[in-house]
Amino acid sequence: MTRAEQDGWAVVTVAGEMDLISSPAVRQKVHDAVAEGRRSLVLDLAGVRFCDSSGVGVLIGARRLMRSCAGRLRIVLPHDGAGSGSEGSASSVTAASSASDVPVRGGEAHVNRVLAALGVRRLFEVYPDLDAATDDTARPLSA
Question: How far apart (Å, rounded) are the C-alpha atoms in residues 8 and 136?
Answer without folding.
Answer: 10
